Amino acid sequence: MPQRQPRVSPVPGLHWTYVTVDAPESTMPVSHAIEADVLQRQDPELAEVLLGERERQASALQLIAAENFTSPAVLAALGSPLANKYAEGYPGARHHGGCEIVDVAERLAVGRAKALFRAEHANVQAHSGSSAVLAAYAALLRPGDTVLALGLPYGGHLTHGSPANFSGRWFDFVPYGVDAETGLIDYEQVRTLARSHRPKAIVCGSIAYPRHMDYAYFRAVADEVGAYLIADAAHPIGLVAGGAAPSPVPYADIVCATTHKVLRGPRGGMILCGADLAERVDRAVFPFTQGGAQMHTIAAKAVAFGEAATPAFAAYAHQVVANARVLADRMEAEGFAVTSGGTDTHLITADPAPLGVDGRTARGRLAAAGMVLDCCALPHADVRGLRLGTAAVTTQGMGEEEMAHIAKLMAGVLRDEVGGAETRREVQELTAQFPPY
Ligand SMILES: Cc1ncc(COP(=O)(O)O)c(C=O)c1O
Questions:
Q1: In terms of CATH architecture, what is 311-432?
Q2: What's the 35 CA to ligand 1 centre distance in angstroms?
Q3: What angle do CA 326, 330, 333 make, to 5 degrees?
Q4: I need a surface site. Which of 108, 181, 290, 328 has the fewest CB within 10 A?
Q5: pLDDT at position 35, please?
Q6: pLDDT class for 34, splitting at 50, 70, 90?
Q7: In angstroms, what is the span from residue 129 Cα to ligand 1's centroid?
């Protein structure tokens, strides 16, 4: 099996092959793990699925704001024998024998997370972003407590009070919103609602907010009404790691996050807090809301934290934002109504209505043309808009020039000026120049 050579990114430092921690460049492209693996011989049906998905990811533009391409090193840890190990509890205090080696992996992950985010304590066992939020609530709240959070129609996550989620059933959520015109958080409303409802906790975080949040303001309001502050930084935490977004760590009592978005780690969650809450948070994760830790994922998180501490990752994070700014700008020039007029982060939300198409139809047409993104609620209207991000395409090595090209491709398809099949071919030509693996 010939080894693929990593391509040279036009933007130095972006591609994951250039952010390897203190080891030489990866010599095991992911294709090796799939093609040469026993899976293809033993279970060609399933191997076909893996290869098909790899091809889908490589041949279309992955613009879903929550997605990214992990490094081969992260994938290697995920596919390692650590997946076999049961490890209930925490390093040095497990309910299972034989944990002495996986303990090292978890200590590495915790130590690297604490250093990366300058946090006194890190719990890296949360299975997902939702599990992290569940544990934060379990650590600080009792059923029936009042919680102030961004309403779901304005970009709040399901765990911020959706009636379909445990949060909406077990707690009394009071939603704050964003200004219909500017798309920015209505901070005055946050203060007014906090004063009148006296919540036990205030949550700041969103699935679709393109701007930085004013954590200092949230902290001041929380202090004024005696509430805990929980930052759900699932989206921006990778930018925080790379120094491209402000950190909620100095302000929030608990920071919840995912490791698989801009941070470019494995699918999973993470919780950061001060030493005073460390024990409560750890007990809220295990044994209160979870069982055995997933040691292969924790090892992969350690790898990702190591990568994220490098100067190359900082360059990547800043390029993610630079790319998003250009993409937002070019989309606006093409006629999209971009929420808040732009972005500070990796994330853009926009209404395609001025191009003569609604959000759901736009998502379908773009997908058919090879551009994969999401729908989302819009602050100014009762219709669905588009949500997209630049984390994955930046990992592939794309820069501002490619962002301008993508905005043009999107507008051409939605205005019906260029056929879907023709655009699909152009997308394939573009992605072929930037293979993720
Ligand atoms: C703000 C926020 N919180 C929580 C989550 C949940 O993460 P997960 O899907 O890993 O449960 C997300 C996921 O996108 C999110 O954006």
A1: Alpha-Beta Complex (3.90)
A2: 32
A3: 145
A4: 181
A5: 54
A6: low
A7: 5
Domain borders along the chain are 82-308, 311-432
Whether 232 is a known active-site residue: answer: yes
Per the annotation, where are the binding residues for (6S)-5,6,7,8-tetrahydrofolate? Answer: 152, 156-158
From 262, 232, 375, 367, select the one nearest 324 (Cα to Cα): 262
Annotated binding site: 152, 156-158
Residue 86 annotated to the active site: yes
Give the residue whose CA is nearest to atom 6 of ligand 1: 129
Of 258, 289, 297, 423, the active-site residue reads 258
Q: How far apart are CA 235 and CA 241, in angstroms?
A: 12
Helix 400-414 and helix 311-333, axial crossing angle in degrees, nearest 10: 30
Residues at CB less than 6 angstroms from ligand 1 = 66, 128-130, 133, 157, 159, 205-207, 232, 234-235, 258, 269
Give percent above pLDDT 90 in the chain: 89
User: Residues 404, 337: contact at Cβ < 8 Å?
Assistant: no
On the question of pLDDT at 139 being above 80, the answer is yes
- Give me the CATH code for the 82-308 domain, please: 3.40.640.10
Q: What is the pLDDT of residues 191-232, one digit of tens each?
A: 999 999 999 999 999 999 999 999 999 999 999 999 999 999
Q: Largest Cα–Cα distance of the chain, in whole Å?
A: 66
Which phi and psi (to 5°) does residue 372 adopt? -100, 120
pTM here is: 0.93
Report how far ligand 1's centroid is from the alpha carbon of 400 (Å): 28
Q: Is 215 a catalytic residue?
A: no
How confident is the model over 56-71, as pLDDT tens digits? Answer: 999 999 999 999 999 9
